[in-house]
Amino acid sequence: MKDAGFTLGALFVGVLAVLCCAAPAIIAGVTMLAAWLSYSGYVLIAAALIAAAVGGVLLFRHHGIDAQACCEPEKKASNHE
Fold it and tell me: DSSP class of residue 57?
């Protein structure tokens, strides 16, 4: 029983040491990520719009819709035949 308590205590101290030593690296990483995202916000918005446009074009091509079929007037039936 004494060994289990020692192992549990050593594990707790090890986890605490890892958290304390890794905290500055985690904070620095989060800070750098936030700064990069705030700087590249315009780039990310443009990339999202371009991706949505390409996806729309591919969707229309997949369904077989082309520009000519979209813009042709419909032929109306005439009663004068």
Answer: H
DSSP assignment of the chain: -HHHHHHHHHHHHHHHHHHHHHHHHHHHHHHHHHHHHHHTHHHHHHHHHHHHHHHHHHHHHHTT--HHHHHPPPPPPPS--
Determine the length of the chain: 81
Query: For residue 63, which phi and psi values (nearest 5 degrees)?
Result: -85, 0
pLDDT at res. 54: 92
Q: Residues 37-56: pLDDT tens digits?
A: 777 777 777 788 888 999 88
With vertex at residue 60, the alpha carbon angle to CA 54 and CA 66, rounded to the nearest 5 degrees, is 115
pLDDT at residue 81, rounded to an integer: 53
